[in-house]
Amino acid sequence: MAKLTFLGAAGCVTGSKYLVEAAGKKLLIDCGLFQGTDDLKQRNWKPLTVDPKTIDYLVLTHAHLDHNGDGCRCWYEMGIANRFMRIRRRLN
Fold it and tell me: What does the alpha-carbon distance between residue 5 and residue 18 come to, in Å, rounded to a whole number?
C-alpha cells in the first residue's frame, strides 16, 4: 500500500512538499519554499524530515516558488545535482 507524508503545505498554502512511498521507492512531489510571515520563512532553513539521500525521484508540478523554489537544495541534498549536470552536458 502507498504511503503519503506531508512535509510542507500542511496547515498553510505554501512550501509544497509531499512524499509518496510505494513499491520500495520514494517520490518527492514538489520542493517549494515557504513564503509569507517570518515564522513561515524560517521553515525554509530546517532540514527535511526525511533523509534526502533515500529519495529516488523528485517531480515538480509547476514553476511557482511555493512548489519548486527549494528544488536546488533538494537536488543537492539528494545527491542528484551532479548527475543532472552530467546529463545536461551530454545534451549540449
Answer: 6
CA gap 61, 46 in Å, rounded: 22
Backbone angles phi, psi at 80, to 5 degrees: -105, -5
Mean pLDDT of the chain: 83
Give residues with Cβ within 8 angstroms of 65, minimum separation 6. Answer: 32, 33, 35
Q: In what order do the strands lie in the sheet with 57-59?
A: 3-6, 18-22, 25-29, 57-59
Query: CA 89 to CA 56: how far, in whole Å?
Result: 22
Reading phi first (left if > 0) and then psi (alpha if -120 to 50, else beta), residue 29 is in beta
Whether the predicted model's global pTM rises above the 0.90 cut? no
The confidence score (pLDDT) of residue 84 equals 57
